[in-house]
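Priority: medium. Attachment 1 of 2:
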């Protein structure tokens, strides 16, 4: 495992377009708190890099030569649950975005928007924020198929309230302001919610809650 400072976010980029991956790495080289520890051109190389370096964030291209990005993301999430996976895609098709949620991704970036938003997206993913707009989340949640009924019965009223705000795409800071709590207190509540739902990211928790019937479908705000 790579040694890193307490404020450093380590990143692995998995993309078979070497020039694109290298351009992202160069962009991130200017960020003092982000370090690209490896780039990989195949899923096998990427998974091996994650095993060796255990980064906090992995960027995965959807279209890969040996296996698609969804399979790569799913394997990384199963083997290294503390690593946040962000899907890079050239499409914003709902079926792909739903599949990315099912694969356990913390969110997604379309390639035309990746460069200007990349550093902030990585920082958000590293602390467990969901990389998805409130409008997109509201559009996708009704399309998630129900299962896992009965899950989440041990959620407290406050935890359900916070889960509902997560489903609207709110950040920890926004939730803290709304509920007159400290950001640290909200962060603790979010972790309780994730633990009780068996989720590793906010986006996964929201999707799980919808499948379990814990949440109604929110409208974007």
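Attachment 2 of 2:
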């Amino acid at each position: 495992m790579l040694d890193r400072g307490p404020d450093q976010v380590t990143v692995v980029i998995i993309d078979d377009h070497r020039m694109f991956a290298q351009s992202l790495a160069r962009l991130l080289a200017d960020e003092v708190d982000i370090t690209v520890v490896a780039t990989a051109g195949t899923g096998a190389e990427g998974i091996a890099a994650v095993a060796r370096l255990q980064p906090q964030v992995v960027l995965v291209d959807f279209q890969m030569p040996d296996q698609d990005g969804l399979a790569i993301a799913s394997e990384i999430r199963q083997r290294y649950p503390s690593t946040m996976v962000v899907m890079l895609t050239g499409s914003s098709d709902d079926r792909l975005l739903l599949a990315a949620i099912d694969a356990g991704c913390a969110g997604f970036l379309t390639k035309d928007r990746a460069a200007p938003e990349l550093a902030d997206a990585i920082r958000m993913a590293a602390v467990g924020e969901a990389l998805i707009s409130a409008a997109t989340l509201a559009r996708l949640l009704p399309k998630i198929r129900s299962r896992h009924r009965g899950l989440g019965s041990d959620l407290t009223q406050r935890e359900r309230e916070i889960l509902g705000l997560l489903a609207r795409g709110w950040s920890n800071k926004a939730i803290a302001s709304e509920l007159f709590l400290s950001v640290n207190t909200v962060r603790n509540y979010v972790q309780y919610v994730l633990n009780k739902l068996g989720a590793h990211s906010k986006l996964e928790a929201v999707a799980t809650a919808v499948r379990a019937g814990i949440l109604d479908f929110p409208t974007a705000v």
